[in-house]
Amino acid sequence: MRAGINRLLYAFSVYVVPMLIAAATIASLLWSPERYESSGSVPLALRAIHDENATLAPAAALKLLQQAPLTHRYSTRLAETPIWFSFDAPSTGPARPVFIELPSRHAQTLTCWNAATLTALGTASRVSTSGRINPVKAGFSIQLDPFSGTQPVLCRGTFSGPAYINALAWNQQSLAVSALHFEESAALITGGLLTLAVFVFVTALINREMTYVIFAAWLVGNLRLCANALGWDTEWLGRALAPEAMQMVRQVTFGVYYLLTVALFGQLFRRELKRVGYRWALGIVQYNGVLMLLASLTLSYAHFIPVLWVLSSFGMGVLIFLLVRLVWLARSRTVLWYVASMAVVLFATLSEVFGAAFGIKLLFGGVNPVITALSSSMMAAFAIAEQVRAERERRRQMQTELRNAYEVTPIGLFTLDGNGNFVRANPALRTMLDLRRADYRVRGWNDYFEPGAWDALQALAAKGSDGELELDGVAGKGGRQRRFLLKATRSNGWIEGSLQDVTERAKAIEQLHFLAEHDPLTGSLNRRGVEKAIVAQTSDPQPWALAYIDLDRFKLINDLFGHRAGDEVLKQVAARTRTLFEDRYPVGRIGGDEFVCVMSNTQIDDAIEQCHELITVLSAAPYQVGRRSFQVKASIGLVECSAGARVQDTLSNADRACREAKRVAHARLVTYRKGSAAFEERAKERMLVESLGQNRVPAGLFLVMQPIMSLSAPTASLNFEVLLRMRAQDGSTLPAGKVVVAAEESGNIAAIDRWVLTTVLEWVDANRAALPNTRFICVNLSGGSLNDEQFVNDIFSLFSRYRSVVHYLCFEITESVALHDLENTQRFIARVHEMGGKIALDDFGAGYTSFRYLKDLSADALKIDGEFIRTMCAHPADTAIVEAIVALARNLGMRSIAEWVEDIDTLRALKEIGVDYVQGFAIAKPQESAAILAASSAASFVMDPEVLKFVESLTTSEEALQVWKMGKKSSVPLVR
After folding, report:
1. Which phi and psi angles does 781 have, rounded to 5°?
2. Under 8 Å between Cβ of 534 and 650
3. What confidence score (pLDDT) does residue 667 get?
4. Average pLDDT per run of 10 along the chain, which is 976 residues long?
């Protein structure tokens, strides 16, 4: 029963009472008489003239007025000089005084006389009145004594602004009722609009909606404009404003109201204006408002009014145009109410402008400004109510969408109280944690996650919504432990957050982290992991060593049985290594068949012993792959290391030791101890590499030249090879081999080769006259330079600059480099021949010689590898090889050059075989350039008596020698 009574009272209060109030209000407006009904005024005809010089006396003015036409309404046309006007007051009978109302709110001063006798009736201003003149409503009134017949009245007044002069005759009671009506209207409009403005302002502050603050100020401006139209803007809240400030107040009111109207328009319809366009027009209207405000502060009232008319007419016209487009394109109820409210205000404003400027009244009657102000404000209130309703509906819809999203989102969402118990949880979270609603107040956060999870959650929530952390859940069904990503924040004393199951992602990331430092094939460390392990070890003061392991002939397994078999062998190698060391040392694979072991906290002697054991483990037992077994041997380079060692230096030293172990037969293990000669030598080489690795020509380079002697005419030519040397800081001279190797390791070999060629060409060009017997000058080219396209382009540009001496050059290219990229080598040789240069294949026989390719290389000479020459007298097989190479060169139309000729026996053997040129210490050591310029032939440098005697025997019959050369058909000169 109580609930039924409550519902009945609610319905009565919400529906019945408002309907009764509305019905009573309508009935009162339609059928009840007005309490202060103002009627009974009689408009009077008047005559008026303008006293432009303010010099007329009452009698003179009265005389001029007799010629003026009669009118019921006279415009002052913004004149601020005196206006004289006269009218005849009607007869009211012997006992009833007549009151003449002059209702102009723009009247500033007024003086009146009895026109028949020129007796003063009184004076008035906005400050005080005297005599029979009194203030009434917005203007003044004149009380005349009862009389029969008409009574002429003469008045002189001054006005400001767009004033109109008219006169109304009243009896005393009717004028009093009209004044009460005027005050009632003023109170009604003031109370209504101020109440609405205060309500909107408070609502705006509470909801922090600054647009409604503008609207509240606009309502106050609406009130002041209505007061101006009715003529009671001279007061505010029952307090009279200073008369001398009224003009400035009115001007500033107009300017501020204009700006408020435009600002409110732009804010209320900012979304809709994006659709209707013409925002630039609204911008122009805003600039007009600034101009109007400046004009209100600087111009007089008479000059300000025309500016107001022009600017407000333009601005209101633009706003009305935009309102029409808003109604047409954006037809929401909120927009329609706002549009109606703004339209009423704009229409009333234009009415006032047109009425003041042109005398055209679009609205009539004194009550119309009240209706305009109240109706526009009421419509704006309806718009606010509609907007509140729309916002509430939008919020309800958003809450529904949020609730639906909360239910269906795949991410777990939760709310916890201060004790860690669940308050809310969406289905996704309940599924993740196997949480039931019945468990909300029973089980806490810590029941589902790792120890310390509640403290971690509180710390995360204190940071706000930006932080996140991962934590492990307790083992669920099947003993499977999961990992979660957590985000949380505090809200109203609760903790709200989200939870994602990132178990698979965590596993993937863990795998990626593993692969970032591990070899996916063997599970050992990769190069990055090895370098990280070395870096960690270099900061440890304990002794340690680095073992570099390389499998011998492993490539054959890949070539013969495929990479699958090779991969399986590598897995077994890694497994054997890890089994031996039992995780004491990090083991990594840094190449195809190259492994590294960081032997931490180990003395070098212990490391040597363990490496021998590792060699045995890796090499003793065969590797079983399917039904095949493979025997694989291992070589190890071991380096003793200390704290502070650089990663690349350590790896480089170990790699060098391993290569040395592979070169030395049956060595298997080569160790570099700290302070050993090999260790120090490698340190020097490393320093040399660093000094050459700056992509520039290092200091200390110089050239020497080793003569090459012809065995057919030793004294007829002065040919030589240019050799590179480098002078170290201590003054010692480094051999070319070390310099070249270091330059190749540093990647700076091309810059050095470029310097060598430039220096040689400059020297030959400068000393060409002193080299009449020189036929060719050998210059070595490294493989790195030959495969550098930029270098090749640079040297041919250099050849173009020194084209006259290029024919002296004979480029020495090693056989392996030449065959590495046969097509590139052929193109290079062809371009060299076009420029007049020559080509020699260096160290021929040292590599895997392929006679099938040799015929495709149009070389001019074969330079036999010095290893064959040095041992040919002791090993007949070497002699046979040299003899075969010489015959091959002769048959291919090439000259043969033997290097490393160091004794007379080798020299005689080479002469018998038929070698064309010889080079070595038996002839001459490398010479300075000055010595070359001072000699006449390569034979000039021979110092050994036996060799000198042999050379003399070769030159006893020069004429017979020339005949022999001419008769040898297969012999082709080196110079083409």
Report:
1. -120, 130
2. yes
3. 64
4. 81 80 77 67 92 90 91 87 92 77 88 91 89 89 82 91 88 86 80 82 84 84 78 76 81 88 81 78 87 88 82 82 77 72 67 55 48 71 73 83 81 86 86 82 82 85 78 68 85 85 80 83 89 84 90 85 90 91 88 90 91 90 87 90 80 86 76 69 56 63 93 92 84 69 66 89 94 94 80 90 93 77 84 92 72 76 90 88 91 92 93 94 93 93 92 68 43 42
Residue 8's H or E segment, with its range, is: helix 2-11
Residue 677 and residue 721 in one domain = no
In this structure, the answer to whether residues 584 and 495 fall within a common structural domain is no
- The whole-angstrom separation of Cα 718 and Cα 483 is 82
Last residue of a domain, one of 130, 153, 180: 180
What was the pLDDT predicted at 133? 92
Ramachandran sector of residue 252 (left: φ over 0; alpha: ψ -120 to 50; beta: rest): alpha
> What are 429's strand-pairing partners?
none
List alpha helices for 409-452, DSSP H: 427-433
CA distances from 487 to 362, 469, 504, 593 (A): 65, 7, 18, 47
Residues 70, 73: Cα–Cα separation, whole Å: 9
The residue type of 351 is S
- Same domain for 582 and 529: yes
Q: What is the DSSP string of 911-946?
A: HHHT-SEE-STTT---B-HHHHHH-SSGGGG---HH
Supply the pLDDT for residue 809.
95
Secondary structure of 747-795 in HEC code, one letter for each residue: CCHHHHHHHHHHHHHHHHHHCHHHCCCCCCEEEECCHHHHCCHHHHHHH
pLDDT at residue number 365: 41
Q: Domain for residue 186, yes or no?
A: no
Same domain, 492 and 622: no
The CA distance from 225 to 401, in Å, is: 46
Q: What torsion, rounded to 10 degrees, do the Cα atoms 528, 529, 535, 537 define?
A: -160
Task: Please state, in angstroms and rounded to a whole number, the distance separating the CA atoms of residues 490 and 240.
Answer: 56
| CATH code, domain carrying 448 | 3.30.450.20
Q: Give the C-alpha separation, 133 to 121, whole Å.
A: 7
Assigned token pair, 316: 């209101």
| Nearest Cα to Cα of residue 221 among 267, 265, 260 | 260
Nearest-angstrom CA–CA distance, 282 and 346: 15
Residues 799 and 870 in one domain: yes
Q: Which of 863, 928, 940 is nearest to 725 (CA)?
A: 928
Alpha-carbon distance of 337 to 323, in angstroms, equals 11
The total number of structural domains that make up the chain? 6
Q: Report pLDDT for 967.
A: 42
- φ/ψ region of 731 (left if φ > 0, alpha if ψ in -120 to 50, else beta) reads left
Parallel, antiparallel or unpaired: strands 107-114 and 119-125: antiparallel
Measured CA distances, 269 to 65, 263, 325, 879, 934 (Å): 55, 10, 11, 105, 101
In a shared domain, residues 708 and 666: no
Whether residue 11 is found in the same domain as residue 61: no
Scan for tokens 């010479």, then name that residue.
Answer: 927
Residues 819 and 877 in one domain: yes
